[in-house]
Every structure is written in C-alpha cells, then in structure tokens.
User: Fold this.
Amino acid sequence: MENISKEAIVKRGEAVLMNTYKRDEKLLVSGKQAWVTADDGKDYLDFVSGIATNVLGHADEGLVEAITQQAKQLIHTSNLYWTLPGIELAEALVEVSGLAKVFFANSGTEANEGAIKLARKWGLEAKGESAVEIITMQQSFHGRTIASLTATGQKEMHHGFGPVVPGFNYVPFNDAQALKHALTSNTCAILLEVIQGEGGINLMSDAFIETVNQIQKEANVLILIDEIQTGMGRTGSMFAFQQTSLQPDIITLAKGLGGGVPIGAVLATEATARHFGLSAHGSTFGGNPLATAAGLYIVKAIKERDLLANVQQQSRYLVEKLTSLQQSFPVIKEIRGKGLLIGIELDVPVTEVIRLAYEQGLLVTSSKHNVLRILPPLTVTKREMDYFLTIFKSVLEKLSEKARQF
Ligand SMILES: Cc1ncc(COP(=O)(O)O)c(C=O)c1O
Assistant:
C-alpha cells in the first residue's frame, strides 16, 4: 500500500468527515490478534481493542469465517421475517445471562434507548402513567443519542443539545442515601453501570449494591444494568453483574458482543419484556443475520476458548505487576477495575502517557483526563502483557525524567 503522508491523511479526512473526533494521525491498515499495523509498516500492541470491542483481537480466523459464511448466505432481510442466527444468538444470550428475552439493536446507545423505552412502558403499565422517572448516576456514560445522552450523568455532555429528555434524575455514584432520596412514586427505573467505564473506572460499592437490591424489593422499580463496556467477558465473568448480588430486570449490551461487527442488545426478564408488545419498538438492521452470526461466534468463542479464565489470569498478573510498579513510580495514584477493564489513575493528565506509549508502539486510551484505561483483547497472552509492562515502565521513566528537569 502507498505510504500516505500524515498531513495528506488529515487533510483528506477533515475535508469530508465531520469534526467530532480527536484522531491520531496514523493510518491503521490491518491487524492480527492484539496487534495493528499502520501504513508505514509499524506494528502497535493494541490495548484499546476498539474501546473494549475487539474481544478476540483483530482478524480472528473463526470470526472472519463465521461472518464470511453468513455473508455468502444472507446478510440482511428485515425483521419482517424469521432468520436463524438471531434466534440462535438470543438463545445463547438467554443461557449465559439468566434473563429471558432479547431485542437486538445496532449499538450501545441504541440498546440503551430501547431499555429506556421498555422501562417507561413497564412504568406506565405496571405503576401508572406518571411513573416515567429514571434515576441514573453522576459520571455515568450511556451513549450519544438523545435519551441515552440525557441518561448520561455528565451535564457537560448535554450542553448544546437541549432540551434534553425530561424525567431523568442524577445521584452521585455509590451514594446510597442520595439514591434513596431521589426515589419517588414516579420512579420506574434505576440505570447503573457496575463499573463506570467512561467515568473513570469507578466500581460500585457493596453497600450501594445492597441498597439497590433493597430498593428493588421494596419500591417496585426496575434495575437496568448497562453492560455495554463491562459485558462479554471483559471483567472476568460473562457480565459484570454476575460477580455481584444484583438481579437486573434489564441489561444492555453492545461493544464486545459482535467482536467489532456493530450490534447491540437489550435483555430482559420475562415479566419486563412482556411490556414490549407488537410494534412497540423496532430497528431495520437490529438482529440481522450478519451481525448476529458474529455475536453467536463471540459467545461460543468466549466459552469454548475458556477466555474468562484467561481474563482472570492475565488480570491478576497485570494488577500484580502494576502494583509493584506503583512502589517505584508515585505518579501512579491508584489501580482499579476488574478483569481486563483496568484503570490506572495518575497524578498527571494521561495525554502525555498515551503519546509516549504510542511512540513506542503501544495503543492505550483514557477514561477521564487522569485515568489510563487498559483494554486488551480477552485473548491477550502473558508475552503481550509483558510487552505492555515494559513500554509502560519506560513511559513512566520518561515522565519522571521530565519531572526532574523542571
Ligand atoms: C457503558 C456504556 N454505555 C453505552 C455506550 C455507548 O455505546 P455506543 O458507542 O455503541 O453507542 C458506551 C460507549 O462507550 C459505554 O461505555
């Protein structure tokens, strides 16, 4: 492939694409497992994984084969007709989640829109027409379309897009008293992330989980868990809620579900799902054979390749090594997260860390300005972890060096 200069790439992209992303200037052209290659032939260890999406890394042979076979057979029909891959993926998701029914969407935000609609429909029919209020958490992230954006408890993201959707209340994450106070007879649902992925890798506390469980029992409200970032094995169990005592009425999925092929899903209990009757919700692409064949392959691969065990093992290794690095580098304030969703809080902005890592052949991203977010594929090996750790250590050394010079 012709090596295009970075100035030329930026110029061409900026001429035709809306300016909504701060992109790196490299042109990525191919990938294999945990590695991506730029047009200049340089390889990068990809610990971003399409932001927690490429659970099997890049160009996984089985996934490519599953998509190819399905594409040759049937890519898309519409939801006017039955097709098998969607049924099979729904069966597989029901089995691994313990929930009863599935609605397929195309992205995380769209899955959350579906969950919000379902919760409101349930509220109307189970509690009365004013039961439309949804409580969400400050620092949460649920997507960019208007209801999911409203649900996102980061007011700065709403700016410029008002009027946002009425009926949302926000409470500080892990503040049980605030949650109890926010509850009214009009509350139909509480929307939660077990680990806030975009909000800084913040874990839900046990005390807060207890309160949520108690409210669910006593107040007749639905518990919605957004597993878009934490789901599909990312935290070491198929879904993060499974490591807690939470019993969600609805969960939403996307990201890892298709291993890179766009797909989202709303999963609900029987009692909740029954409130989505004929024509209540829909999507042209949602659950099409191509996307669901990818999803089905992913669920099977996580089980058959024993990837949850790999996530747990690699996570233990990573956290142990990071914890010992922390002894020598006080710039590391805290290491938190679960499985392969690990946040490293630094007492400097992480942009410089990301840049230095990039120069040395490593892709990492942030969660908030001072938390480095580590998201390897679930297939990551110990060798790749060691490679990451070597580069990260060298980045920390460079930072310390710079700090000494000032
Ligand atoms: C927890 C969570 N919910 C929802 C979304 C939105 O997903 P999408 O970008 O696929 O719309 C994200 C994306 O980062 C997420 O992390």
About this structure: The first helix runs from residue 6 to 16. The chain has a mean pLDDT of 96. The domain at 306-374+396-406 is CATH 3.90.1150.10 (Aspartate Aminotransferase, domain 1). Residues 32 and 202 are 31 Å apart (CA to CA).
